[in-house]
Specification:
Rossmann fold, 5-stranded antiparallel β-sheet, globular, 12 helices, about 425 residues, 4 domains, binds glycine, D-amino Acid Aminotransferase, Chain A, domain 1, alpha+beta, binds adenosine monophosphate
């Protein structure tokens, strides 16, 4: 296979490593990639949203399969565009990626198919939304409808916070046009976890559960981020929780998308909350999660390229997707100030690390041969082991050997 991977973060580094491992991979390209990815793939410059540039590269490099990892090009229709040239694509068409691309769509979809989720109202008129937040129960959750790098969700504890969040989203356009419509929903309490599934447009194959840490600071304080650390399996995992999740959420979602004429191919991401009243959907994504992928893919025993082919061909039920039994764990090192303003270009030094540690690069680049910071989330430090506690100890003792100016990371991943 001659594969092009689209994206350039930690998630893509983990995907690139899994694809590069396969004897079926003849050549691996990545656009735009990053410093870490360039060690396992040939990087091609360009924007993930420049579809014509990508289509041209596919022709020039004789690529047969494109793996689209990030949300923007998926919802923007990159798969639709490349399929016009008969290119094999791993990832949903935009008609299916809307499950992530519009929260208003996904809430309506869940209501229609009786999939448990937080109660909600949708508004595209500021005055009506304002009126609603003056009387809704607190805390309340205000979400920009569209894609906002995982940052378009504000949890408001007080009436005043709710007013500010609404202003920020709808009037100040802090998340651009993503905030033209807002979903205001019930605040749920419980234990959050993530479930990912490979889908081939007909059936699905579940991956191990995982748990992300979305808040920037220790103790789940501070603003929401793309994710500051993760581990697998999630603490809530039990046969009973899984059975309920599959029956009440996964099956109706996959079948509902088929019924809507939007069959899903690729990775479907279920952001879930185990509440006192059962498991509920917090959000859907139409792709692998970041940093969940960095803990999930190292546990995959089956060749990822065969799964990619099976998802594209609709033959997923013919293969056995196998996983290691153990645990997997990661901590994200971010630039100071993330998820707000950050400075790029600081040199990164990495000491002699234990063999058990694997680093996936997020925002990194080479500048005159020196590895430097190049984004909000910089590195993802991962390991595998028998227990989460063992993994946690390993990562936190090794992470001290990695340094760059103003680096930040959470010290409580996997404790709660
Ligand atoms: P989302 O982008 O929709 O996943 O939201 C980001 C984060 O906000 C989630 O991972 C949750 O931690 C939190 N969140 C979102 N919706 C709710 C809700 N209805 N109740 C409680 N927390 C929520
Ligand atoms: N870690 C959350 C996400 O990828 O959306």
């Amino acid at each position: 296979m001659r594969i092009l991977l689209i994206g350039g973060g930690g998630r893509e580094h983990a995907i690139a490593c899994a694809l590069a491992r396969s004897p079926r991979t003849e050549k691996l390209y990545c656009l735009p990639g990053n410093a870490g990815i360039s060690e396992v793939a040939e990087c091609i410059e360009g924007s993930v949203m420049d579809f014509e540039h990508i289509a041209k590269a596919v022709k020039e490099k004789n690529i047969d399969t494109v793996f689209v990892a990030p949300d923007d090009p998926l919802y923007g229709g990159l798969v639709n565009r490349l399929e016009r040239d008969n290119v094999r694509c791993f990832g949903p068409r935009k008609e299916a990626a809307i499950i992530e691309g519009s929260k208003a769509f996904s809430k309506e979809f869940m209501t229609k198919y009786n999939i448990p989720t937080a109660l909600y109202r949708t508004f595209d008129n500021y005055d009506e939304a304002k009126k609603y937040i003056e009387e809704c129960p607190l805390p309340t959750v205000i979400k920009a409808d569209g894609l906002a790098l995982g940052k378009g969700v504000i949890i408001a504890e007080t009436r005043d916070d709710a007013r500010k969040a609404l202003e920020k989203t709808m009037l100040d356009k802090a998340f651009g046009n993503a905030g033209n419509t807002v979903v205001i929903e019930e605040f749920l309490t419980g234990k959050e976890f993530t479930l990912l599934a490979f889908c081939d447009g007909k059936s699905f194959s579940l991956m191990p559960t995982s748990q992300d840490h979305k808040r920037a600071y220790d103790g789940d304080k501070g603003p929401n981020t793309g994710g500051m650390g993760a581990f697998s399996p999630a603490f809530v995992y039990s046969e009973e929780v899984m059975k309920e999740t599959v029956e009440r959420i996964v099956v109706p979602t996959v079948n509902g998308l088929i019924a809507e004429g939007r069959p899903f191919k690729g990775v479907l991401y279920f952001g879930l909350m185990a509440t006192e009243n059962g498991v509920k959907v917090i959000e859907y994504n139409a792709r692998f999660g970041d940093p969940e992928t960095q803990v999930i893919l190292p546990l995959l025993k089956t060749d990822l390229t065969s799964i990619v082919d099976a998802c594209i061909d609709g033959t997923l039920s013919d293969i056995d997707v196998e996983w290691e039994d153990g645990c997997s764990f990661c901590v994200v090192m971010a630039s100071g100030g993330y998820p707000g303003k950050i400075v790029k270009g600081y040199p990164i030094t990495i000491g002699d690390l234990s063999e058990d540690i694997k680093i996936y690069h997020s925002g990194t680049a080479f500048k005159d041969g020196q590895l430097v910071t190049n984004g909000g989330r910089v590195l993802c430090v991962t390991t595998k082991g028998k227990t989460i506690a063992e993994c946690r100890e390993k990562v936190y003792s090794e992470i001290e050997k990695i340094s760059f100016k103003d680096s930040e990371y959470r010290r409580d991943i996997g404790i709660k």
